[in-house]
Amino acid sequence: MHKAKKIIVADDDPAILDAIRLMLEFEGYDVECFPNGNGLLDMAKEAADLLLLDIWMSGTDGRDLCQQLKQQESTRDIPVIMISASHDIKSSALAAGADDFLAKPFDITELLDKIEKNIATN
Fold first, then answer.
1. Of 8, 5, 3, whose CA–CA distance to 80 is shortest?
2. pLDDT (tens digit, 9 = 90+) per residue, 83-94?
3. CA–CA distance from 88 to each of 10, 85, 93, 94 (Å)?
4. Strand, helix or coil at 89?
5. Which candidate, 44, 48, 54, places its Cα nearest to that of 106?
6. Other CB atoms closer than 10 Å to residue 72's CB: what's the count?
7. Helix, strand, or coil here: 73?
8. Mean pLDDT across the chain
């Protein structure tokens, strides 16, 4: 039996965190959720397979967090998908070094497709 892929999710909306956690766990992923970016840098080093980050969070901004992750040797190869209700998510996510992005509200199937694509290339 193979080990479940670990996905770390950071979003300051508890309802979104719960929905994403339930959906990803149903799909067989090991999911760890954070209500903000604090402490996430240390957790990511614990062999996360993918990070799903909200751009605008209380505490550490998702873009800043993504930039820090991509600058550290231990976390730079972990795929990051940024999510946001922002109209300029594409430019914000790519400028921060994210591997992919998704606008809120998003379709569950689209999220799963992006996760699968980014984990497969990792």
1. 8
2. 988 777 888 899
3. 19, 9, 9, 10
4. helix
5. 54
6. 12
7. coil
8. 87
- Which amino acid is residue 122, in one-letter code? N
For 63, what's the count of Cα atoms within 13 Å in the CB-facing half-sphere?
A: 13
From 72, 74, 119, select the one nearest 99 (Cα to Cα): 119
Strand 80-84 relative to strand 50-54: parallel, antiparallel, unpaired?
A: parallel
Dihedral angle over CA of 117, 86, 71, 81, nearest 10: -20
Query: What's the order of all strands across the beta sheet hosting 30-34?
Result: 30-34, 6-10, 50-54, 80-84, 100-103
| Residues comprising the chain, all counted | 122
Any bridge partners for residue 29, and if so which? none
In the chain, the amino acid numbered 30 is D
Give the predicted TM-score (pTM) of the model. 0.90
Q: Which residues contact 61 (CB under 8 A, 6 or more apart)?
A: 37, 55
Neighbours of 94 (CB within 10 A): 13
For residues 5 and 26, what is the distance between their CA atoms, to the nearest angstrom? 13
Residue 7, φ and ψ in degrees, nearest 5: -120, 130
